[in-house]
Every structure is written in C-alpha cells, then in structure tokens.
Amino acid sequence: xxxxxxxxxxxxxxxxxxxxxxxxxxxxxxxxxxxxxxxxxxxxxxxxxxxxxxxxxxxxxxxxxxxxxxxxxxxxxxxxxxxxxxxxxxxxxxxxxxxxxxxxxxxxxxxxxxxxxxxxxxxxxxxxxxxxxxxxxxxxxxxxxxxxxxxxxxxxxxxxxxxxxxxxxxxxxxxxxxxxxxxxxxxxxxxxxxxxxxxxxxxxxxxxxxxxxxxxxxxxxxxxxxxxxx
Length: 230
Fold this sequence. Notes:
Elements (H helix, E strand, L loop, with lengths): L4 E5 L3 H13 L3 E5 L2 H10 L4 E4 L8 H10 L8 E5 L4 H9 L4 E4 L4 H17 L8 E3 L2 E4 L4 E4 L2 E3 L3 H11 L5 E3 H9 L7 H15 L6 E4 L3 E4 L4
Parallel strand pairs: 1-2, 1-3, 3-4, 4-5
Antiparallel strand pairs: 6-7, 7-8, 8-9, 10-12, 11-12
Helix pairs in contact: 2-3, 6-7, 6-8
C-alpha cells in the first residue's frame, strides 16, 4: 500500500472529495487546500510527497503557485501534477515551463489520474541522489543534487522541465535524440507532449543559457544533441 503524502489543491469541493476518495482508497495519505496561498503554507509546513494542483483558484492561481514552489528551497523538489480544464497546447506548454511534472486535463478518469500520480512518484524515487557528480563544460556547470545551473559562475533560473532536459542531454554529449526520446527520457513512456512543445522548451532553455545555449545543437530532421567537448 502507498504511504506517500499528497496535497490536493482544488477549490471545487465535489472534485476535491472525488480525488481524495480515490487516493485514500489506494492507500495515499491526503490533505487538501482550497486556495493557492493555503497550499503554499501547507507545502512548507507539512511532509508533502506530491502536489495535485488545480490552475483556476481563488486569489493566487495555480501557475503562480507552481512558480513559487519551484523558487522556494523548502518545496522546489516536490513533484507537481497540474489538474485543470485548460487543455490547449499553449496551456500545457506554459504549465511545463513553470515547472509542472505532469499535466492532466479535466474531465479525467480516476484510474488515469492514479496511474499518472504513481508514474511521477516512481520517477521521483528513481532520480539521482544529491551527491551525483556535477557536469562542467567550460563556463557551464550543472549540479544535479542542488538542481543548480551556473554560467560563468552566475546562477541560471530554470524550470524543473528545463533542468531535466538540459541534464538529460548534457549527461550524454554527442548523442542525438529525437523529440520523442527526450520526452521519454525525462518524463517516461507515452507522455502527451508534442514536437512543438519540445521545440518551445529548447528555445527557452537556450535563451536562458545565453552563449552556453549553443551547446544544445539542432540536428535537422532528427532532434537535438549536446555538443561534445572540444
């Protein structure tokens, strides 16, 4: 039986109760927040293994909640699964860019929701331990344990997804990966992200890295690779 603690951030009480019922039945330990502000307080004060986050909340919306979670040392490594009625590709891209680990569109199947939550938790438990060696390429340093990226000793603020993609590519310099392989490598099988979503993410990552963004090379007709050290 599962024993992970899941924070359900949902202001519609009927949906909140439905989610809570299904998660409790699976053995998860659940507690809830009706607003973004309350969610942040509980995430900082309680043991939280995953946050299930609605986007359309009173006061602070879900996107701002996720941004705040990723900026705070106390909460930045907590997996976030967004659950929302906003299902356009641009909405999904935005959710991933601010740091969501998964994105589920309402209406949803409770069985699919449970499967996706378990998948995110498995990936989290399989992530490298904090003392993994950093990757250093000239002026670019990537520290997996601290989730920190430095360019010329200056910290670069990346979303969780941007960091995962950068670390995935930089760990395998010279290897060429298709967009699907990149998504599979950082998210797991069958994750619903389009080629366009990956391209948008890479563009944003290069922009944030500045000159160091040139280490991420486009291989026309195939995908992307991280340039081997000269």
